[in-house]
Design brief:
Layout lengths: L1 H35 L15 H16 L11 H7 L2 H4 L6 E2 L20 E2 H5 L3 H9 L6 H30 L2 H12 L2 H7 L5 H23 L5 H15 L8 H17 L2 H30 L4 H11 L6 H13 L1 H21 L5 E3 L2 E3 L8 H9 L2 H19 L5 H9 L2 H18 L11 H17 L4 E2 L2 E2 H18 L24 H4 L5 H10 L5 E4 L6 H5 L3 E3 L13 E5 H7 L8 E5 L3 E5 L2
Parallel strand pairs: 1-2, 7-8, 7-9
Antiparallel strand pairs: 3-4, 5-6, 9-11, 10-11
Helix pairs in contact: 1-7, 1-8, 2-3, 2-6, 3-7, 7-8, 7-10, 8-21, 10-11, 10-12, 10-20, 10-21, 11-13, 12-13, 12-20, 13-16, 14-15, 14-16, 15-16, 18-21, 18-22, 20-21
């Protein structure tokens, strides 16, 4: 009998593992083909153009690996950029000369393309002129920017799939195979996940690593509370917490959230002051281990950096309002030893984030209005969540919430028994604490440039939804098994993902009027990240357009693609355009800047995001 149970368990494990591999493979294929299209022999027109943030991330990642310096794109940690640049070491694109003999003004390649020379200067390094660097590297006449982006995106997609499988693996160990598989399915078969997980940006990988950090940390404190051996679980938790912090600075919310959540858990389970102090001591050691890991990782990005230049960059970006003593401490770290030098560079990135948040510059189009630094209000993220998540997931969110409330209300037992049941496995509790802490910070912030900035909350809610679904999988509702209801919704989710392929960036659900009307709710990275620029280039060349005025999203220099046919469109020249020419304007720009070109002159719509007008 025991042997039969063991065999059944092994068979079920293999079944779920195989299914998880298929789901991860689906993520790779859907993500890659959605951003790169199918015509890989002609990447100039195939797939999505290099999106706004990708140009800085890809070019900076290659810069790190080639120079051992970290002066560019300091406001983001290196992990995602490093991984994206690994294939470029084999591709070997031309690396522009960085000269200390010349002084070049910032914006020379960003505002004016093409520059007279495709070189870079040391003074621009220190000033973090990442957009100029992106232009002289990616759009160097000797390089192929679309091929570079292809390999960089493929690397990120591969590592995202790997981390997703690890998330499945750990969830299967701490809960069970079914809840792990449902979590993986709901994360992967999501237009939002596919849109962000297929680009060289921080948000998706960072969010997956943050959930992995929470799950691995919950294993550690459960072993600690049960007085089991914690050496391996400590190492694993340290690793994933470090990787999360190396993927995005906002991941730092993990540290206070996990500390508070862990204290509550240990206090409730152990009910002793000794355990409380032991936990505090161990968490301090965990934090020091993470700092050491980060410092060593950053060392490989700073060993060629001049100490005086590092201090000069910190001086340049040191935010107003912070004590001057912090700057002196960081300078001391830089001149002390290589490991502390790496830690100082990490802290420099944190300071840059503070500097940019203290003076928020943004222009938001949201619900028919334009907002600036003041933000669009506390409903920005909730409305976007209900507008951009698939209807199937929203239904599952609601069902899961109702089922959990029903279970809690009708649980036969005292309140303490309910709490003990909830805290029996710390993963659920830690996810709730983390989501609460992250929500407090993001909902109170005026920085609102896309739903992607609360992706850790979204993935956390998705995992909790999967846990609730699993709890009711084998139960019935009016003689109908919940498993059948859930399976139908899963099918709807799959059909939704395939029917909206490949337009995942601009996807809005039917509640929000669909993708074609989503811009009426919000634009920026929620709708238009410059992904349709390649389609515009193809239309211009196919129609032999001699002159076109352009104002679209994204950072790619269209002059690199279409030469002298390109002319900049702005509010000053909109009333004096040449007759018989064309105007290409992003829907977001059309709404925000109020260009108001006559709709009867609309000649074409490119993708979901660009309008073409003919000048009479």
């Amino acid at each position: 009998m025991v042997n039969v149970r063991i065999i059944r368990t092994l068979v079920n494990n293999r079944k779920y593992n195989f299914l998880a591999i298929i789901i991860c493979l689906s993520f790779v294929l859907l993500g890659l083909f959605s951003v790169e299209g199918f015509d890989w022999k002609n990447l100039r027109y195939s797939g999505n153009a290099i999106t706004t943030d990708e140009s800085a991330h890809i070019s900076s990642g290659y810069y790190y690996l080639k120079t051992g310096k970290y002066f560019l794109n300091v406001e983001h940690p290196p992990l995602v950029k490093d991984l994206s640049a690994l294939p470029l070491l084999f591709l070997k694109p031309v690396f522009p000369n960085i000269s200390s003999d010349i002084i070049i003004f910032e914006g020379y390649a960003w505002e004016y393309y093409p520059p007279k020379e495709f070189i870079f200067s040391k003074n621009l390094e220190i000033r973090n002129a990442q957009w100029d660097w992106a232009r002289v590297f990616l759009f160097n006449p000797q390089n192929n920017p679309d091929l570079i982006a292809f390999w960089a995106r493929l690397a990120v997609i591969f590592f995202n799939a790997l981390f997703l499988f690890l998330l499945y693996f750990f969830l299967s160990k701490i809960w069970n195979n079914r809840v792990a598989t449902i979590s993986l399915f709901l994360i992967v078969f999501s237009q939002f996940s596919l849109a962000n997980g297929s680009l060289v940006t921080m948000d998706f990988m960072s969010s997956v690593l943050q959930i992995l950090a929470i799950v691995s940390f919950s294993v550690y404190i459960k072993n600690f509370a049960e007085e089991k051996n914690t050496k391996f679980s400590f190492s694993v938790a340290s690793l994933f917490l470090s990787l999360a912090l190396l993927s995005k600075f906002s991941s730092a919310i993990l540290i206070p959230a996990m500390f508070v959540g862990g204290i509550i858990y240990v206090a409730f389970i152990k009910k002793s002051w000794k355990a409380f102090f032991q936990y505090a001591l161990r968490f301090s050691f965990l934090s020091l281990t993470i700092l050491l890991f980060i410092s060593i990782f950053y060392y490989f990005h700073t060993f060629n950096m001049n100490n005086d230049d590092m201090v000069a960059q910190i001086d340049h970006y040191y935010p107003d309002g912070l004590p001057l003593g912090i700057k002196e401490i960081l300078a001391g770290f830089i001149f002390s030893n290589p490991i502390l030098k790496g830690l100082a560079q990490y802290a420099s990135g944190v300071l840059m984030v503070f500097s940019r948040m203290s003076v928020v510059y943004q222009q938001i189009f949201f619900m028919g209005k334009v907002y600036g630094a003041e933000g669009a209000g506390s409903m920005y993220f909730p409305i976007l969540y209900f507008a951009k998540m698939s209807v199937g997931l929203l239904i599952l969110n609601l069902l899961a919430l109702l089922l959990v409330i029903q279970k809690f209300i009708f649980f036969k037992g005292k309140l303490l028994q309910r709490i003990k049941l909830f805290l029996d496995n710390p993963t659920t509790f830690l996810l709730v604490v983390f989501i609460f802490c992250y929500s407090i910070i993001t909902l109170s912030s005026n920085l609102q440039i896309g739903l992607r900035h609360i992706m850790p909350i979204i993935l956390g809610l998705t995992v909790l939804t999967a846990k609730a679904i699993d709890s009711f999988w084998d139960k019935k509702l009016f003689k109908i098994r919940f498993s059948h209801i859930f399976s139908v919704i899963f099918l709807v989710i799959i059909l939704s993902v395939f029917s909206s392929f490949p337009n995942y960036i601009s996807y809005y659900n039917s509640f929000a009027g669909g993708t074609s009307n989503g811009y009426k709710i919000a634009t920026d990275s929620n709708f238009d990240w410059g992904q349709d620029a390649k389609k515009l280039v193809k239309w211009i060349e196919e129609n032999n357009i001699k002159k076109i005025y352009v104002d679209i999203e994204g950072n790619i220099p269209l002059r690199w693609y279409i030469g002298n046919a390109y002319n900049e469109l702005n509010l000053k020249n909109r009333s004096s355009l040449d007759s018989e020419s064309y105007v290409a304007v992003a829907i977001s720009k059309y709404e925000i800047k109020k260009y108001n070109f006559p709709k009867e002159n609309l000649a074409q719509k490119i993708g979901n995001t660009i309008l073409i007008f003919r000048v009479p």
